[in-house]
Amino acid sequence: MRQRLLKLIPQLLAILVLAVVTSAAWAAWLGWDQHRDVQPDGTTTGPYEAWQVIGLVLTLLAPVYWAASRRYFAGAVLGVTVGLTAAAFYDWSDDSSGLFMVGVGMVMVGSLVVTAAVSAVIAAVKRDGRRRGAAPGSRP
Predict the structure, then answer these.
(1) 37 by DSSP, 3-state: which?
(2) Are 107 and 84 in contact (CB under 8 A)?
(3) Is residue 28 part of a domain?
(4) What average pLDDT is seen over the chain?
């Protein structure tokens, strides 16, 4: 029982750390831009620009790589998903239409799927690199 708990603690810490880092990244990239831009034809865009979302995604690659390369897959996937979902919920909850939950659900599912795929690719590349870089005659 104690061994199981000791193995679980790093995963839980990774989830917590990645959730906090992800929420902070959301605030840094998306939290300050809250107004919609009105185009000359009357349509609205925003509140986020594409470069902000791309910046958020690129920023999150570093902590996901850190967690996945250390085999904290639950931390990588759940931490980022929880962080993005909580940040989106907090940021969009003042929407008067009530449709913000649809967007929050899409953020949750999208971040879960994409982070799981990125973590799997990182794990496969790290595993393949270890095999290729191993000394002749050594065991993986």
Answers:
(1) strand
(2) yes
(3) yes
(4) 87
